[in-house]
Amino acid sequence: MPTETVCFVGGRVRTMDRAGTVAEAFRTEDGRIVAIGTTEEILAGAGDARVVDLAGAVVIPGLVDCHSHLELLAYSWELAVDCRSSRVSSIEEMVGVLAERAGTLPAGEWVLGQGQHYQNLKLAEGRYPDRHDLDRVSTTHPVLYRASYHLNVFNSLALELLGVDDDTPDAPGGRIERDPATGVATGRTYDMFEPLGGPQPPVEELAAAIKRVQDRYLAVGVTTLGDIPLHRSGLEAIAAVAADGDLVLRAALYPKLKAVVSAEDVRAGRTRERIDALDPDHLAMVGFKVFLDGGLTAGAAALHEDYPGQPGYRGELAFTDREVAALVATADDAGLQIAMHAIGDRALDQALDGALALPVERHGVARHRIEHAGNMFMTDERIKRLAAAGVVPVPQPAFIMTTAAGYVAHLGTDRIGTVMPFRTLIDHGLPVPGNSDAIGITEDQHHPFPAMQAAVTRRTNDGDVLAAQEAVTVEEALRMYTEWAAFSIGWEDRIGSLEVGKFADFAVLSGDPLETEPTELAALTVTQTWIGGTLVFERS
């Protein structure tokens, strides 16, 4: 940590405190803010401090992405072949680019491909690839195509290596797709990557890739993540980066239950103690993630009614109601948050039941979260239950651009209700924290400003407007990625606004978001990013 005193003067500092204070200058010591005011006031007490002239630039608090996946971005951006629809328009083209990669690898090494949500609607064939398509990539390399974390497709060699045969059972909450006529696996799997033991890159390789992903976050003004390691290698890679002193971002971790931490581990505090000791100012385990159902993009979310065209199928719940209530209590007793993935309405109700099962005096104390609550299925009754339980809903503003239209096309508004009802949630007093859930399906899903623009304009990447009445103001959009996101990870006492005592984490912008046309928010650029009073990114 820096030990010098620095005065940042001559700027337009949007502190994002509760009063919306706009200052000219602030002073930092040992990486924290010690004074805020006019340039004259700050310089008067400067002594021999170093002075940084902001030259009229706009400063905002460091942005917070409260639901991120460093390891999945490392996979998709750094390790996998780009198979997204911005590059391929058909399965034939996908096979070609994957085969090109296979030609560069020794036989037996995995060929990894990254696609995107609802890509079946964009490919010329109108479907996802299957094992036979991927067999044409290679019969000497195991091949994996990922459309989302939930939907993975393997070729025949990969299925053989993973031990998938006609008798392989589905895991709780997961499904191996089989040909209805023959019962043979098609290669498409839904929420089965972990149960099948899908391929994990070496920790050293993943750690190096995470460092490069970190640079991309810093370049868009993000200084803190609520990061969710989904595999043991992901947690160990982040820990290795921190142990080497190379973790520049701050990261509040929510490792996945069972795959990364166990309930017993949570109760004993083993992983938490080890992680929290590595770099306390930058890394801490604040909770754990649990998947109550799968993804709607994979047709595995747990619904109250049948999936269209699939009579009798309503997705799967991974836990019983009693088990969910016990997991919430385990987190609460440990002083940790539980982050419950609940996409379908049946899973959402189960999560709410589990949170409300806590003693009333514990409601809202640990600040438990429901990931994806607020994307859809938000009835008046569920919103009231969210508020009563003191649970933080964590919808994904970036999904307005990429995924929300797929929700509507898949189930229809009669079932899902108003898509992304952010205005309604805020009007009910619920914070809507900014986050990306970025796994690499687009180049800019991790970028807060396009997501802020979408929250304000409600416009998709295809130009359609979704539920315009649910638009937020620009100031609210900025609070989503500052104050409210900091609140969602329990760190509002250290980040989320520029106030005395908090970390000097901030971004210098090309313009003022609150004086920018909403349709131009995505065009704002970050010229500098500072963490703990140290310059960590500067645009050349």
UniProtKB/TrEMBL annotation:
This protein's species is: Micromonospora pallida
Q: Which residues form the Amidohydrolase domain?
A: 50-537
Name the chain's protein: Amidohydrolase 3 domain-containing protein
Q: Which CDD domains match?
A: YtcJ_like (cd01300)
The UniProt GO MF terms for this protein read: hydrolase activity, acting on carbon-nitrogen (but not peptide) bonds
Any matching Pfam family: Amidohydro_3
Q: Which PANTHER family match?
A: IMIDAZOLONEPROPIONASE (PTHR22642), PROTEIN LONG AFTER FAR-RED 3 (PTHR22642:SF2)
